[in-house]
């Protein structure tokens, strides 16, 4: 999975425009986070086909940034599950630059992490998933 960053003006319809562009290209969005500030919106999209997504976004004149490897962790939907998952990353000195929740099955959460060391993150979190 890859996390893409799309930056658009903070005006009505932009999130629909981005998601419609990917949907029209038959690219599934498995997670999303959107933030606004200073007249701009920063949209993070979790996709399995980042190259196709970047091409579709560029063709629609949308400002898309390079993809980052994203680690998706399935966790039980219960208090402290996320903190317990993140503790070994902290002890290993891995910095998390982005985290958001993606679509998950009932009673389960999917947490998306972008870190400064994806390989070590995968090794540490292997087996933690619910």
Keyphrases for this structure?
VC0802-like, 38% strand, alpha+beta, 8 strands, Alpha-Beta Plaits, single chain, 31% helix, 2 domains, 4 helices, 130 residues
Question: What do these coordinates show?
Answer:
It is a single chain. This protein has 130 residues and is of the alpha+beta class. It has 2 domains: 2-68, VC0802-like, CATH 3.30.2130; 70-125, ACT domain (Alpha-Beta Plaits, 2-Layer Sandwich), CATH 3.30.70.260. It has helices at residues 14-24, 50-59, 81-91, 118-125; strands at 2-9, 29-37, 40-47, 63-64, 68-69, 71-76, 96-102, 108-115. A hairpin with a 2-residue loop joins strand 2 and strand 3 (40-47). The longest helix has 11 residues, at 14-24. The chain is elongated.
Q: What CATH architecture of the largest domain would you give?
A: 2-Layer Sandwich
Strand-pairing-aware structural class: alpha+beta
Helix content: 25-40%
Task: State the CATH topology of the largest domain.
Answer: VC0802-like
Task: Report the average pLDDT across residues.
Answer: 91
Overall outline: elongated
Q: Number of helix segments?
A: 4
Classified in CATH, the superfamily of the largest domain is: VC0802-like
Summarize this, please?
By secondary structure, the chain is an alpha+beta fold.
Give the SSE layout.
Layout: E1 2-9, H1 14-24, E2 29-37, E3 40-47, H2 50-59, E4 63-64, E5 68-69, E6 71-76, H3 81-91, E7 96-102, E8 108-115, H4 118-125
């Amino acid at each position: 999975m890859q996390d893409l960053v799309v930056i658009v003006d903070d005006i009505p319809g932009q999130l629909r425009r981005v998601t419609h562009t990917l949907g029209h290209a038959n690219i599934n969005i498995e997670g999303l986070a959107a933030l606004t500030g200073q007249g701009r919106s920063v949209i993070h999209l979790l996709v399995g086909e980042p190259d196709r997504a970047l091409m579709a976004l560029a063709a629609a004149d949308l400002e898309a940034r390079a993809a980052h490897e994203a680690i998706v962790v399935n966790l039980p939907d219960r208090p402290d599950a996320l903190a317990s998952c993140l503790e070994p990353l902290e002890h290993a000195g891995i910095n998390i630059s982005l985290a958001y929740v993606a679509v998950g099955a009932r009673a389960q959460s999917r947490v998306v992490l972008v870190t400064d060391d994806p390989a070590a993150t995968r090794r540490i979190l292997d087996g933690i998933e619910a």
